[in-house]
Amino acid sequence: MSHQVTIERPRSVAFGILLLAGIVTGIFTSLPALESPDYLQNLVHMKSDIHLAAVFQALMAGVYGAIAVILYPLIAMEDPGKARGYLVFRGIGTAFLFVGIVTLLLFEPLGAYAAQSTGSGMAQSEDPALLGSLLRQGRDWLNHIGMVLPWSIGGGILYLSFLRSRIIPPWMAWAGLVSSAASIVATGLYMVGLIKIVTPAYFALTLPTAVLEICLAFYVLIRGFRVPDSQMKGELV
């Protein structure tokens, strides 16, 4: 028996564009130079890079917040309780992205302090190195635990809802559940110190999420969210 569906075209296009924008802005928030052994000496020359990364992180946070809001009605259609849980977890993840902007900008005064220490004959001072180490670790925790963990839990709720509502193909919803679980495992292993961020194991566990999001973005841009009429409860806001 065939089922009538309604194509949520405007919402689909907005979501697809936002999903791709989130991936692009995420790429430009990274500062590989912070991982180099002599990053403290180079910080004073990285002001523009730091500011640019902070701008992209702010854009990324805004995009992620918009993604959370735009999908809420679709999940609420299937289960209002799931929708509230989804919004809470993804809201927490987005909030940590905004906090991460502050830690990123703190590298600028750290660079000035490191340069001042060197210029004053305090090259052997451990203060800048210690502060830098704490700042880098704090930024990693904010971005890869504070943000990723609740965002991935929200993703699990999202794909579970999509699996039940069949707004997207079941195989894609299952892939979303598996990739969300893999990201949660990666975060847990990182929290207890079993893996580091820039390692093959971490990439292997988190890459499926990025690949799926790209596939999902193009799917909804081309096909759209296919909402069964039997699940339509009034107008989607």
TrEMBL record:
<dbReference type="Pfam" id="PF14329">
    <property type="entry name" value="DUF4386"/>
</dbReference>
<protein>
    <recommendedName>
        <fullName>DUF4386 domain-containing protein</fullName>
    </recommendedName>
</protein>
<keyword id="KW-1133">Transmembrane helix</keyword>
<keyword id="KW-0472">Membrane</keyword>
<feature type="transmembrane region" description="Helical">
    <location>
        <begin position="141"/>
        <end position="162"/>
    </location>
</feature>
<feature type="transmembrane region" description="Helical">
    <location>
        <begin position="12"/>
        <end position="34"/>
    </location>
</feature>
<feature type="transmembrane region" description="Helical">
    <location>
        <begin position="201"/>
        <end position="222"/>
    </location>
</feature>
<feature type="transmembrane region" description="Helical">
    <location>
        <begin position="54"/>
        <end position="75"/>
    </location>
</feature>
<feature type="transmembrane region" description="Helical">
    <location>
        <begin position="174"/>
        <end position="195"/>
    </location>
</feature>
<dbReference type="InterPro" id="IPR025495">
    <property type="entry name" value="DUF4386"/>
</dbReference>
<feature type="transmembrane region" description="Helical">
    <location>
        <begin position="87"/>
        <end position="107"/>
    </location>
</feature>
<keyword id="KW-0812">Transmembrane</keyword>
